[in-house]
Structures are given as C-alpha cells and as structure tokens.
C-alpha cells in the first residue's frame, strides 16, 4: 500500500470510528464522556474528538439537513450510516477539511461499517449539499431550534428563566468553552506560571474574577502544560474556582477547620480548597469510579483528604454538628456547562429538572444537620435553571429556621439571583454557575 492510500484508509477509519462512537449519543443512550478512541491512530485523536464534539454540538442542524438530503430515512438497523452522514455534513459545514476529502473519505467509510452499498447514497447526499448548502441551510434554519442548535424544551426553559438573555445563552452554549487553568498557589504564583507558559509557547490571559485562574488563548493537551505532572496546575473553569473565594471568610482564619466536600468527584473543588486553606477535609461522593479520579488528582497535587464513598442524602451514623463548613456542589442538569458537554442537549429531558431539584433539596436537608452552629454551607450548581438554584434556596430557607443566606451582595461577578449569585455562560469567559452561601445560627 502506498502512502496516499494508507492515508486514505486512515481517514475512512477515523470517520467510521466517529460514526460508531456517536451513535449511542445520537440515540440518547450514551454520553460523550465515554468516547472510545482506542481504534483511532494517536495522531488522529484530536480530530476524532473535534468531530464527535462538533457533531454533537450541531445535531439539530445536521439532522434537519440530512432529512432534506435523503429521499427516505435510513432503516433503524442502518442508524450507523445516518451517523456517518451527519459526520460528513458536519465536515462540509464547519471544518477546514478539503471538501473532496470530507466527501470521499466519509462515503468510503461506509465500507468499514460493513455497508458498502451506502457509499453511493452518502456520496450523492454530500455532493448535493456542496452544491446547495446555502439554500438548504437557510431553509432548515427557519426553525429556531435548528438555527440555535437546541431542543425545543431547552429553548423554552431558557426563555422562561432568562427572557432577556436566552438567545445569548444559547449562542454561548454553542461555542466550545475556553481552557482555563488553576495555578496551585502552594507551589507557584500565577504571574510566574504565566511566564513559564509563555516560555513553552502558550499564551494566556489573567482571569477577570478568579485569583488563581489563567485562560489559555488556545487549548492544548494537559501534558503540554509545564509542571502539570508535578501538581503545579490543574484545568478548571473560572466559575468553578469561585467556590474558594466564597468559603474564604469561613476557612482562611481557621486553620484545621473541619470541612466536608459532599459531592466531590472528580475533585476539582476539593483540590482547590486544599491548595487555598489548611483544613481537615473529608471528600465524599456516591460514585466509586469517579472517586478514583479524586485520589489521582490529590496524589498528583500532593494534597491529602479523607476520601469516602457514601450517599449524602443518607449518611447513617454520622453525628450532627460535625463540620465547620460544607460544600455541596450538587448533582444538577449541567445547563450552565452545555458548551463543554454538548451531549446534555440530547440526553437531558424537561422532566429531569424537578427530579434533580428534589434530590438537591434532600442533600441540603441532610447536610445541614452535619454543620456546627455558626458553620457555613456553600451550595453550588453548574445549572442556570432557577428550580435548581434561587428557587431551591428560597424553599430551603423557608423550611429551615436556623439558616440564613450570607451570599455577598457586592461581588464583581455574576448577578443576584434570590439569595444567591448566578453566573451565565459567557463566550470565551466562564461557565454558567450558581452559588448560595448559608450560615447556621449559633445555638
Ligand atoms: C457536580 S458533580 C461534583 C463536581 C466536583 N465538586 C468538582 O468540583 O470536581 C456532582 C457529584 O455529585 C455526586 N453525587 C450525586 N448524588 C450523590 C449523593 N446522593 N451523594 C453523594 N454524592 C452524590 C456525583 O457522583 C457527582 O460526582
């Protein structure tokens, strides 16, 4: 085989692998976090990920165009060919891959799915898209769900929650989030680390709100970050870094304070708390697999915590008045981080929101009992829905007489939302997030 045809085969293999990997996500049966790139050559893995994330981000438009291009939909058993068609459409619309390669290698990949018959269909569809792209796109984009790349329920929920901002939110959700770093302040200052990045050819800007944060101008592999293996730096969005700012007044003056990070995995905030404060930290999560990531992260950063598995709505036998502070970074819809997890648009359903709100309420109630009088609980979500945020805290305060909100009113970031603070996702800036700080009355 000569070089050109080997390259051709690799290109087909990459596209077939993307179609296979995407199928469960398209069918709302699996998540992008489980992407398996083992069949893809190491040098093609970045492109593979870009393809899978990109297709997922733009599914409504790709599917609407596929509907226009096909005379009749593929049979259920040929959903992999449908996925391949979406991969092809995505390349023509969004990627700087020469069109002949995008069409030829996508159509050729049908053979690798064991469906050589589909090569002609795919070739025909993709060539037609090349010829008629503007007219077809204008036609499908008349539907706002297609133009804004969001399912109808989600657009409706955004519109209801943020009548003045929903369009900007949807647009921000569609742009990949920037890569933001958290500098380990125990090891190195942000200024010095920024210089080191520059020496490695990586430009960054100082985060507007998070004192340990630097945002890279161009994302890179973590292993290209100087000092990553030695624990000098971690990847964490700017909004997520603000938990430490809000807990500062409770923890900074009290070395040895007992802290519970109740939903800790994969450990981003656990590690940040330990970098910032000398505290005695218990890191709890119900998911054993995710907890292994917490211990890996703590090992890499040279930090120590008591890592425990448990359901924070139960915690039988845990005595009350046990912790000076609790961080509840609650399981949520993830509606503030759609740009990082575009599969949320396919996997979430409207009916998930009340179920999540119920779980969050149970977590709040149980964890409150563990707090000492005078202690602080920081409630956080990466959601932008009031049901999980301001409404949740309002209901909690109404049923909890010894709780009062102490979320500062004069923060430089976000906007007031009931008794908490809401950050909306910002293009090239932070994710969507919510925080509410609560204090337990002294006995
Ligand atoms: C938003 S994530 C936490 C992110 C983490 N705090 C960080 O900064 O890296 C929510 C976590 O809650 C955990 N979780 C969900 N239900 C739980 C429960 N009942 N008890 C304890 N943890 C739970 C999930 O396994 C998940 O790891």
UniProtKB/TrEMBL annotation:
Give the binding site residues for S-adenosyl-L-methionine: 263-269, 285, 311, 329
Please provide the record's keywords in A-Z order. Cytoplasm, Methyltransferase, RNA-binding, rRNA processing, S-adenosyl-L-methionine, Transferase
Active-site positions on this chain: 382
Reactions catalysed: cytidine(967) in 16S rRNA + S-adenosyl-L-methionine = 5-methylcytidine(967) in 16S rRNA + S-adenosyl-L-homocysteine + H(+)
Naming one, the record's GO cellular component terms include: cytosol
Cross-referenced CDD domains, in alphabetical order? AdoMet_MTases
- Annotated GO MF terms: RNA binding; rRNA (cytosine-C5-)-methyltransferase activity
Q: What is the top-level taxon of the source organism?
A: Bacteria
**PROSITE patterns noted in UniProt:** NOL1_NOP2_SUN (PS01153), SAM_MT_RSMB_NOP (PS51686)
Listed GO biological process terms: regulation of DNA-templated transcription; rRNA base methylation
- Describe the location of the SAM-dependent MTase RsmB/NOP-type domain by residue ranges: 169-441
Just give the chief location class. cytoplasm
- What family name appears in the similarity comment? Belongs to the class I-like SAM-binding methyltransferase superfamily. RsmB/NOP family.
Q: Could you identify this protein by its name?
A: 16S rRNA (cytosine(967)-C(5))-methyltransferase
């Amino acid at each position: 085989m000569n070089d050109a045809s080997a390259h051709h085969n690799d290109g087909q293999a990459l596209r077939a692998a993307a179609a296979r990997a995407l199928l469960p996500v398209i069918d709302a049966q699996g998540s992008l976090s489980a992407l398996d790139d083992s069949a893809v050559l190491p040098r093609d893995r970045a492109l593979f990920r870009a393809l899978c994330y990109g297709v997922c981000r733009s599914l409504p438009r790709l599917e609407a165009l596929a509907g226009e291009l096909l005379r009749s939909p593929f049979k259920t058993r040929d959903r992999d060919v449908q996925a391949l068609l979406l991969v092809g459409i995505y390349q023509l619309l969004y990627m700087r891959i020469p069109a002949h390669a995008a069409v030829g290698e996508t159509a050729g990949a049908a053979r690798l799915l064991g469906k050589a018959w589909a090569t002609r269909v795919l070739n025909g569809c993709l060539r037609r898209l090349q010829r008629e792209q503007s007219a077809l796109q204008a036609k499908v984009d008349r539907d706002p769900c297609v133009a804004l790349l969001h399912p109808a329920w989600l657009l409706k929920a955004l519109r209801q929650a943020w009548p003045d901002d929903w369009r900007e939110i949807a647009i921000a959700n569609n742009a990949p989030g920037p890569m933001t770093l958290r500098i380990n302040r125990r090891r190195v200052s942000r200024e010095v680390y920024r210089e080191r990045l520059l020496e490695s050819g990586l430009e960054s800007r100082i985060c507007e709100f998070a004192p340990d944060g630097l945002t890279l101008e161009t994302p890179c592999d973590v292993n290209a970050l100087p000092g990553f293996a030695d624990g000098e730096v971690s990847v964490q969005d700017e909004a997520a870094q603000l938990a430490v700012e809000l807990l500062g007044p409770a923890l900074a003056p009290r070395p040895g304070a007992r802290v519970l990070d109740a939903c800790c995995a994969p450990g981003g905030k656990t590690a940040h708390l330990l970098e910032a404060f000398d505290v005695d930290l218990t890191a709890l999560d119900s998911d054993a697999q995710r907890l292994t990531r917490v211990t890996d992260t703590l090992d890499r950063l040279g930090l120590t915590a008591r890592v425990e598995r448990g359901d924070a709505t139960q915690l039988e036998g845990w005595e009350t008045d046990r912790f000076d502070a609790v961080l509840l970074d609650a399981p949520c819809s993830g509606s503030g981080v759609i740009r990082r997890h575009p599969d949320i648009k396919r996997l979430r359903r409207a009916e998930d929101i009340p179920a999540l709100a119920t779980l969050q309420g149970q977590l709040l109630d149980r964890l409150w009992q563990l707090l000492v009088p005078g202690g602080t609980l920081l409630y956080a979500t990466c959601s932008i829905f009031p049901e999980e945020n301001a409404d949740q805290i309002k209901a909690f305060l109404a049923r909890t007489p010894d709780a009062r909100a102490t979320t500062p009113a004069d923060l430089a970031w976000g906007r007031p939302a009931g008794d908490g603070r809401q950050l909306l996702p910002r293009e090239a800036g932070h994710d969507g997030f919510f925080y509410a700080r609560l204090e337990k009355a002294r006995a």
